[in-house]
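Purpose: get a first structural picture of the assembly so the mutagenesis plan has something to point at.
Setup: four entries, given in the order below. No constraints added.
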Amino acid sequence: MDRSVLRSIPLFAAMSDAQLDRMTAQGSARRIAQGESVFEQGDPAKAFYLLLHGRLKVTQVTRDGQQIIVRVVHPGDLFGFTRALGRPDYPGTATAAVDSLVASWPTESWDGFVENNPQLAMSAIRTIGQRLDEAHTRIREMSTEEVERRVAHAVLRLIEQAGKRVEAGMRVDFPISRRDIAEMTGTTLHTVSRILSAWETRGLVEGGRQKLVVCDAAALSRLAENAG
Amino acid sequence: MDRSVLRSIPLFAAMSDAQLDRMTAQGSARRIAQGESVFEQGDPAKAFYLLLHGRLKVTQVTRDGQQIIVRVVHPGDLFGFTRALGRPDYPGTATAAVDSLVASWPTESWDGFVENNPQLAMSAIRTIGQRLDEAHTRIREMSTEEVERRVAHAVLRLIEQAGKRVEAGMRVDFPISRRDIAEMTGTTLHTVSRILSAWETRGLVEGGRQKLVVCDAAALSRLAENAG
DNA sequence: CGTATTCTTGACTTATATCAATGTCGGTGG
DNA sequence: CCACCGACATTGATATAAGTCAAGAATACG
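Result (structure tokens, whole complex):
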């Protein structure tokens, strides 16, 4: 891991070479195979992470065994910096959706980094703030929208954050199941399956096993916005 | 406004007298009458605030006019520091549920405060982090729990954060309508009314116009946890 | 007092979950 | 290489939680 890797990430863009070198010195990189987890819900938070390459799903299981997807981690995102938020353990499990590469630092390093670099602090605040915004958006959608619109919003977001051009349109660039989408929108895989089938008939998307291609994003947006 | 007021708030506890004085010098206090708003959704974020006394509800309205309650602001909470999160406008409206007193600072002051006081930055990160946690909890509840349990959780939270001992039990210490609870839990006032009526029959709560007293918190907790 | 909120309650409707069965894909091992 | 197994997906039938519609009662307020 060298400083140019970090430099390319907005969170670290404003840091000096010396500061970046100090960070890279304390951190280390690690490869996570598809299906493996970086940490598990309830584990003591010994480190915080940055996704360098790949894609992760952060999930939570409720006491009665139901699972939800809290968020998808994209390259360049910080994750698992739970301790900085005042929690001693990880609130969820981070699983690699594809082979991934993560950088990690011991939690103890956090305070030092922040103290020596107010820019980093402000960036971090903005980052968490965005996440809070996203969470509120999700709450608003779950409170006021029906399932179909929620799914439409979720799919559009996936395309924005992880869309890849293919012949038929834009494809979600990591394996994503109907169940995953259900766990992101607070519904069941059955309902998601029905919705996607209907969309496929209308030519809006193309489905498949762990696969999703959006063919007509504009129509999907309309659907997401105007209740109809 | 003097420094002892701020000193009593965890967020500022670690600051030096000099720093606190600098903050109080740049800020000002303002009284908000019940029903008035501190700022409205979409207003440019010219200031950030701290609730000194009273109680606020932060609401959002969707394009089609549906309203949700994003959160309740309690004394000692920072709110409206949207700009620090990288947004130019307020994402919601903050309305006084009772006569309230707020301190405010121009948004431009934020960066200076943070740069000169890493402690404040770390406190702020923790604060937003907690809020993110709360948001995720709400998402999890809305995804996996039925309405009655969600309402139970919401009511218990209100009691924790704004409970006041009265003869019959613990009362929510500000006017709160059935509609408010509905907007906090993603349901309708009708359903909330039915649920509270049922609870009242079982002796768990005592209702009333804009009033809510929890008589048997233990039973309510049980209800909130074990699906039954 | 009358008018406006807030709340309650009943009857009905509907979106979505649940239950159940079947199909399809893709990798593993015989 | 083919057969089989497990994970994922589809689709129909049915059940039900909670929303909608509607009417009225209670409480606060000017």
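Residues 118-144 of chain A form the longest helix (27 residues).
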